[in-house]
């Protein structure tokens, strides 16, 4: 069995949605062409059955046993060929669907990782989820339908030629009736796609709200807002339901038209053919063939309508995928080198001395976050690392040397040891476990692991949902300490823990990072009092610096910020 997807998805053509779909098809052109061949033979075999059936009926009418046996054998052989080609067509259709869909998954996932913090700033969570849930399916379907669609076109042409050569009036009736039916259902496709887009957009908004509720569920319960948000979610889910009903109305009309219109064509062909048979202009077998062909053409016609629908949906889906792939990260790296040293943000004036345990208190939390993002190269800014502009360093080097750990980080599924120590491997774990326990103690998270039945080998559920907010925060802190970067920037690492744990973390954190550059963005007096140096920022600029107790006496604004106005 062939592995999917390919290791290297390639470089997509994102100049337009159509070009992206064409590029995707080109990446699997062999499977597509082979599938089209099988689908064409599959349709053609079915198209030959009515003609062979008509010949058999004529053999019965003429009482020609030899001819009857011959045409019966041909009919049986056609059945075998149809079965074989049908199996191969289906296998290749599934392969092409999976290949196109998962190639798109690869591209969007890798690009999302490359975009990093840029992606959530540009697109909502629901929009990204919708791309993964529905758009990849539409792109896969646009490849899948090419097989049956191309074969159905060939089958319609062959049937039309046969009918015209047998009876010109009947052939022309089918020749003009088929396009008219295809055109008749066309006006239903535009409102269908418009309503489907509306439903998708509403569903995306609902997914965003659901993600927000889940991520803040503990907080909502704490402030009594759970019922309020549940009510809003219920209202929006009803909007999604109503949008789905509107889509279903158009889909039902389309399905009905695809049955009624071919039915009218069958009735017309049968009526005209019967009159020709009575006048001896065609044989009884030919009448049966014409009737069977009129019935048979329902399949290819519905396939053409389905192809138009799926290709349109694929084009719309590709537009959304291209929108993501067109995005560029807000920050990029260079090719320079730095020996390290002082890390300085010129805009705010924040300066981190090597080996110092520095704390940053800001009057507005967003100012501290903005400074942390610039220092970690998650946002553009005039930042120097030693004598080198941070923008000149390669991003992988910046990420390995400067770690920004905030409360937006997530725990991932897997063994707790591997989740905490990303450098753990299959080697002996004795030394690694010792490192892990040191980090857990510094983060005051030993009790969390000790309470687990399997300790460090305990599995972590998705997003670490089995842990409380405070437990997740302490485990994330332990993970950051285990990474042991040259510069560690922590954003409110103790905001969700109790005062007793916060005091112990403040004491142990400085010792755990001794000799390494550390910045903690916080307004906690317990942490500030343990820092070697405290920086106070107001309106995005450094207003005062010094020791915590000195600033309490010399800077009333600092004192008001960290004591929250308390005496």
Automatic annotation (TrEMBL):
Segments forming domain ABC transporter: 322-564
Main localization, broad class: membrane
Coiled-coil regions listed: none
Domain of life (superkingdom): Bacteria
Transmembrane recorded as keyword: yes
Membrane topology, record value: Multi-pass membrane protein
UniProt keyword list: Membrane, Transmembrane, Transmembrane helix
GO cellular component: plasma membrane
Segments passing through the bilayer: 31-53, 65-88, 145-164, 170-189, 259-278, 284-304
Record Pfam families: ABC_membrane (PF00664), ABC_tran (PF00005)
GO MF: ABC-type oligopeptide transporter activity; ATP binding; ATP hydrolysis activity
Localization per Swiss-Prot or TrEMBL: Cell membrane
Domain ABC transmembrane type-1: 33-313
Keyword Membrane in annotation: yes
InterPro entries, alphabetized: ABC1_TM_dom, ABC1_TM_sf, ABC_transporter-like_ATP-bd, ABC_transporter-like_CS, P-loop_NTPase, Type_1_exporter
Name this polypeptide is given: ABC-type multidrug transport system, ATPase and permease component
């Amino acid at each position: 069995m062939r592995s999917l997807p390919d290791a290297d998805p390639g470089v997509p053509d994102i100049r337009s949605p159509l070009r992206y779909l064409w590029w995707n098809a080109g990446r699997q052109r062999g499977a597509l062409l082979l599938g089209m061949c099988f689908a064409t033979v599959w349709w053609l075999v079915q198209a030959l059955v009515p003609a062979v059936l008509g010949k058999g009926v004529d053999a019965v009418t003429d009482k020609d046993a030899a001819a009857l046996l011959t045409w019966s054998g041909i009919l049986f052989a056609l059945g075998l060929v149809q079965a074989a080609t049908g199996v191969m067509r289906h296998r290749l259709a599934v392969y092409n669907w999976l290949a196109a869909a998962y190639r798109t998954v690869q591209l969007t996932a890798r690009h999302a990782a490359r975009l990093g913090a840029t992606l959530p700033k540009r697109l909502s969570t629901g929009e990204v989820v919708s791309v993964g849930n529905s758009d990849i399916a539409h792109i896969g379907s646009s490849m899948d339908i090419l097989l049956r669609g191309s074969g159905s076109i060939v089958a319609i042409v062959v049937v039309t030629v046969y009918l015209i050569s047998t009876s010109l009036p009947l052939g022309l009736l089918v020749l003009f009736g088929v396009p008219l039916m295809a055109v008749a259902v066309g006006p239903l496709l535009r409102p269908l796609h418009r309503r489907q887009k509306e439903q998708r957009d509403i569903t995306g908004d609902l997914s965003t709200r659901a993600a927000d509720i889940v991520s803040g569920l503990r907080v909502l319960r704490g402030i009594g807002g759970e019922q309020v948000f549940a009510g809003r979610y219920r209202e929006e889910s009803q909007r999604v339901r109503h949008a789905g009903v509107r889509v279903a109305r158009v889909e039902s009309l389309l399905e009905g038209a695809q049955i009624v219109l071919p039915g009218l064509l069958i009735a017309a062909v049968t009526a005209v053919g019967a009159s020709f048979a009575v006048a001896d202009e065609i044989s009884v077998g030919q009448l049966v063939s014409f009737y069977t062909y009129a019935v048979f053409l329902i399949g290819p016609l519905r396939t053409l309508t389905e192809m138009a629908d799926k290709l349109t949906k694929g084009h719309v889906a590709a537009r959304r995928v291209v929108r993501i792939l067109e995005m560029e990260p807000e920050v990029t790296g260079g090719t320079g080198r730095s020996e390290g040293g002082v890390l300085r943000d010129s805009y705010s004036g924040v300066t981190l001395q090597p080996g110092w345990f520095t704390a940053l208190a800001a009057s507005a939390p967003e100012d501290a976050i903005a400074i942390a993002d610039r220092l970690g190269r998650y946002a553009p800014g005039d930042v120097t690392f030693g004598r080198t502009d941070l923008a000149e360093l390669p991003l992988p080097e910046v990420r390995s040397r400067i770690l920004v750990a905030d409360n937006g980080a997530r725990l991932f599924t897997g063994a707790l040891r591997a989740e905490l120590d990303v450098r753990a491997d299959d080697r002996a774990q004795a030394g690694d476990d010792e490192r892990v326990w040191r980090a857990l103690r510094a983060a005051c998270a030993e009790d969390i692991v000790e309470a687990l039945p399997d300790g460090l080998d305990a599995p972590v559920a998705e997003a670490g949902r089995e842990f409380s907010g405070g437990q997740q925060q302490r485990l994330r802190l332990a993970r950051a300490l285990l990474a042991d970067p040259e510069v560690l920037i922590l954003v409110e690492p103790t905001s969700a823990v109790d005062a007793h744990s916060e005091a112990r973390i403040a004491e142990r954190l400085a010792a755990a990072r001794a000799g390494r550059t550390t910045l903690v963005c916080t307004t906690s007096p317990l942490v500030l009092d343990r820092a070697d140096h405290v920086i106070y920022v107001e309106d995005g600029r450094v207003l005062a610096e010094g020791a915590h107790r000195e600033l309490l006496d010399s800077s009333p604004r600092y004192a008001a910020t960290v004591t929250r106005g308390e005496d």
